[in-house]
Amino acid sequence: MDANREQEIAEVLALADAIRGAVGQVIEGKPEAVDLAITALLAEGHLLIEDVPGVGKTMLAKSLARAIDCTVRRVQFTPDLLPSDITGVSVYNQSSGEFEFKPGGVFANLVIGDEINRASPKTQSALLEAMEERRVSVDGTSHALPRPFLVIATQNPIEMEGTYPLPEAQRDRFLLRISMGYPSPASEVAMLERHGESDPLEPLRPVTDAESVMRGIQIVRRVFVHPGVKEYLVAIVNQTRVLPQARLGASPRAGLQLLRAAKARAAMDGRTYVIPDDVAGLAVPTLAHRVLLNTGSQIAGQNAIDLVHSAVKAVPVPSGRH
Questions:
Q1: What's the CA gap between 294 and 289, in Å, rounded?
Q2: 15: CATH
Q3: Strands 72-76 and 110-114, sheet pairing
Q4: Which of 44, 182, 250, 277 has its CA 20 to 30 A from that of 286?
Q5: Are residues 178 and 257 in the same domain?
Q6: What pLDDT shows up at residue 298?
């Protein structure tokens, strides 16, 4: 049994390395952002990339999509985008005399939602069922989405004109929120040399397919988690609710998604089991976008990342390997 588990984890490790190598050809000097994107993929969770314009948010999403031979749809979120553009619509067919379902932009293995906060709240909410249940309901009929199913959404947190901030329920659907940040000078020079005269995505070829990714997801789900590590995880999530600066703490869904992300990170590191460092290292990208600070803490200059760091520091690390 142990030998079989080791072999399965080796498959996931090889899969992650292949995707990392492919995406790394396009995204210069951002290994942490790339690893978090792959973590979301292997945990079959959704990824929110939040940063200023021009730092590679959409490029990361596109390169991850290009590295996998699967169905990909890109949805440009605008104020006039309708919910039916996302979910699909039933159209009457005169020749057959029946209504036919025309799938919307969400029907793909990987959906790239560019500038998601530019769509109206009504259109944003069309994604809720799809992201949580991996199906959509149109005219009383439920339609299953293809698996794996991953939404990678981008948004600009600085420019507020013409945007609609994501509500808490929508943000809670995203497994991870990451920021790209500006590249280092050396990475930026390398980017100019390699991508200045050509499309960086052009030479990128798929290194895996949807079936292999789905198998990796199933292997990740079977990664062992010791009860002590689960208690450690729950304690961190609970701290985000009871710390004095918290107005809204992380939900139970957040704890489940942190567990899935930790399993994916363990497998990507070649381990058949989760360690406390997996949980602590993923706490900020998994929890920070789900919590809200009270007014006093905001005035004092604190933010959600500070709150999650405080929650991690407040919980003793369990001893032992697991």
A1: 15
A2: 3.40.50.300
A3: parallel
A4: 182
A5: no
A6: 82
